[in-house]
Design a protein that fits this description.
- By secondary structure, the chain is mainly α.
- The protein has a single domain, classed as Serine Threonine Protein Phosphatase 5, Tetratricopeptide repeat.
- Helix content is 69%, strand content 0%.
- α1 runs antiparallel to α2 and α2 (27-46) packs antiparallel against α3.
- It starts with a helix and ends in a 5-residue tail after the last helix.
- InterPro entries: TPR-like_helical_dom_sf, TPR_rpt.
């Protein structure tokens, strides 16, 4: 699978997690969000030049309240050409 296909597949699998929410994540959502974070980290290992993966990783980190780490992920996405 090429990195573009991987990025697209990851987006389809985890994009529902990126909707802005106003509620606190419950335990099930945290588990799912942690799974998404792990998947993005693994995808980044496989396709480290795919900016969109860093962007989505940032979104997952935001969902988890890890704002400083999210900003780092967004910066990595921008450095690879993604316009967030």
């Amino acid at each position: 699978m090429d990195s573009l296909a991987l990025s697209h597949d990851m987006n389809e699998l985890y994009s529902p997690l990126f909707a802005t929410t106003t509620h606190t994540l419950d335990a099930m959502e945290i588990d799912t969000t942690e799974t998404a974070l792990s998947a993005y980290e693994q995808a980044i290992i496989l396709a480290p030049r795919e900016a969109i993966l860093y962007y989505h990783k940032g979104q997952v980190l935001e969902q988890l309240g890890r704002h400083t780490e999210a900003q780092t992920a967004y910066e990595a996405a921008r450095s690879l050409g993604y316009e967030c």
